[in-house]
Amino acid sequence: MYYKGIADKKDMVEIKCRIIPKPTSGTRPVYRKKSDNMNEPVLKGNSTGNVQYICGNCGSVLVHNIAQGEISVDIIFQCPNCNAYNEVEYH
Ligand SMILES: [Zn+2]
After folding, report:
1. What dihedral do alpha carbons 87, 66, 14, 83 form, nearest 10°?
2. 40 Cα to the center of ligand 1, angstroms
3. Would 2 be classed as within a structural domain?
4. Distance (Å) from CA 5 to ligand 1 centroid
5. Which end of the chain, N or C, is surrounded by fewer C-beta atoms within 10 Å?
6. Which domain holds residue 74?
7. Span 60-87, pLDDT tens digits
8. Quick check: is 1 in a domain?
């Protein structure tokens, strides 16, 4: 838990993504990280979002400051750290 104990981030919700096999090319949008900076998430939402999605395999942050439900469930995030394919799961 990255924000445990940090007062101004107390409402941050961390959600672990589900690992899926490599999708067939062109069937679903895959987001990959463009920069080499490991501290940058794959995608950043607006500042009012309080959800962050983490890799279901290694725990790296994939999406930061996004509102729950803002991301389409079709979108797949490829982890910049372990290259696993992550699917957003809604509960
Ligand atoms: Zn990972």
Report:
1. 40
2. 13
3. no
4. 24
5. C
6. 7-87
7. 999 999 988 888 888 999 999 999 999 9
8. no
